[in-house]
Amino acid sequence: MSKIKAYYQLVKPGVMYGNVLTGVAGYLFAAGHFHQFSWVGFIATTLGMTFVVSAACVLNNYLDQDIDQIMARTKKRPSVTGEVSGPAMVTYSIVLLVLGTAVLALWTNWLVVAIGLIGFVTYVWLYGAWSKRLSLHGTTMGSISGAMPIAGGYAAVSGSIDIGLIMVFLILFFWQFPEFYSISIYRRKEYKAAGVPVISVVRGVPATIRWIFINTILYVLCTVALTPLGYTGWIYFVIMLIAGLYWIYVGYQGFSAKKPEEWARKRMFRLAMYHILLLCVMLSIGPLLP
């Protein structure tokens, strides 16, 4: 049982479920807009994404062992403790990737397959193995990969790249900066000790707060833009605008926060989690609301 638990932990359940949730929201958003829903397509998209995202997380664990053994929140991962060997992790990742790609190829479309593979390569190599270790702009690579599941979910219905796909991609892209930059503030010492050049380490906390504020505004603008573009009803617009303005207000409070670490963890990061849940729900039903 402990071995099964170790393999389960290697897929980073929190990361995996979060990504798949956005993929489901992307599918339902497109299905509502185009009035096209297929249980086969929905299940295949969800299952395929689960495998591909899990494969990326497992391989990322394998590549990040040197960093993970230093940081408090990751030093107990099975990849660090030795519960699962390196070759086993690589094999596990390959099997998951092949299964996920096969499911997407057989029951969705080639655009979804392409998005899945681009997301995999971006997360594992361009982010995890390369830019994360060399530049504060690694977050940009991570945000690109993190926005792929929702784009893939949308593409499973649309079958093409259109303004709707671009917008849901941008929404998730911009959301990840306030979310991760908040983490980088309250875990700044850990990242510094591990030699990871996140923005809070390289440019300091004040600059990080400024970029959190800017990207929060960009996220909110993209979410509410879906209504005038004809993808959602006005109920969606009102709810997302109110929630978005409140998040922007909390972001603004960061400029005068006496304890930035506490503000980042208990306010900004927590709101990021609430926002992604609200976003997924509202995207799923937004096209159906008045």
From TrEMBL:
It catalyses: heme b + (2E,6E)-farnesyl diphosphate + H2O = Fe(II)-heme o + diphosphate. It is found in: Cell membrane; Membrane. The chain crosses the membrane at residues 15-34, 40-63, 84-104, 110-128, 140-157, 163-186, 207-227, 233-250, 271-289. GO terms for molecular function: protoheme IX farnesyltransferase activity. It comes from the Bacteria. PANTHER family: PROTOHEME IX FARNESYLTRANSFERASE, MITOCHONDRIAL. This is Protoheme IX farnesyltransferase. It comes from Candidatus Mycosynbacter amalyticus. The gene is cyoE.
